[in-house]
Amino acid sequence: MDRTYPVESLTDLGSQALQAVDVPVDEARLTAEALVEADRRGIASHGLLRLPLYVAAIRAGGIRPRPELRWIRTQGATAVLDADSGLGQVAMAAATDRVADLAAEHGAGVVAVQHSTHYGAGAYWTDRLAARGMIGVVTSTTGPSVTPFGGVEKILGTNPLTLAAPSSDGAALTADMATSAGAYGKVVAARNEGREIPAGWAVDATGRPTTDAESALAGALLPFGGPKGSAIAVLLEAFSASLTTANYAFQTEDIWANNASQMNTGHLVLALDTAAFTSREHTEHRVAELQQRIRGAAAPGQQAFAPGDLEHANTGRNRETVPLASSTVGQLEDLLGSLGLPDDLIPDPAD
């Protein structure tokens, strides 16, 4: 059963856990805020569930706590960032700031990132771009977990895709999704909580469909949308890795499997400055018009949602407190013990 905990206390817990393994204060706070924000959105697969993994990877050498980020190439509206195997959140903070500056100067900006790691929920980064009046696109490689349509071998990652447009409605129009039928973190969460996963998400090691989370992790996830979704996942793999020296998923050993693996994850971040086209106000009002029309398309007695509406509603509902699964709380308790941190960093439930 999920119980709710204060947002600020959970953010402090995450920050102190990362500082305990030598992550600088500002970077630890940024990463903790991004994880807790995912929980607030209702995306527990990318929230504090990931914190023990990050800490284990830092301790084992898979993630460097104090990376030396380097801009290794700049040309016009483009740039390439080497993240030195640091936390993906640290790399993406630099990448989104740079791409927004490039877009403000040139009308559009593109940043490719190599030698990075998992960056959390993509909407956290496109929100930063939307707040500056930018249309944002973010994608990434991951560890191998997905087989292409018709396959059984893990060739692709979950290859997340996040798209966002700023809106005068108050919340960006946002789609944040894995290109697998289900997110890898959701399968991990299902295994941890003893739940089955939906049919159509995965095959076992022999290629047979399965709803058992453990068998899915031993087998492979499936792309969404059959051959069409598989094609999109393949192209996102190419976009995220081929512009740099980043690894493809099939070249990667995931830190879930080996905490010492330096995954060399690749990200691609694109931004369009709406002011370079008509005006920021024009685009934001046009996007809001579309959102409102989508919501108004519901059948009688039903409700229609524009992309991002449910996550924005969760964020508003979880403004002060956030629900955590008991399995995640147990893992956080174990983590604090392993770091020699006081267990009272886990606050009393608010409910």
TrEMBL record:
Pfam family, one: Ldh_2
InterPro entries: Mal/L-sulf/L-lact_DH-like_ah, Mal/L-sulf/L-lact_DH-like_NADP, Mal/L-sulfo/L-lacto_DH-like_sf, Malate/L-lactate_DH-like
TM regions (residue ranges): none
Coiled coil in keyword set: no
Keyword annotations from UniProtKB, A to Z: Oxidoreductase
Alphabetical list of PANTHER family matching this protein: MALATE DEHYDROGENASE, OXIDOREDUCTASE-RELATED
Family, per entry: Belongs to the LDH2/MDH2 oxidoreductase family.
Entry protein name: Ldh family oxidoreductase
Top-level taxonomy: Bacteria, Bacillati, Actinomycetota, Actinomycetes, Micrococcales
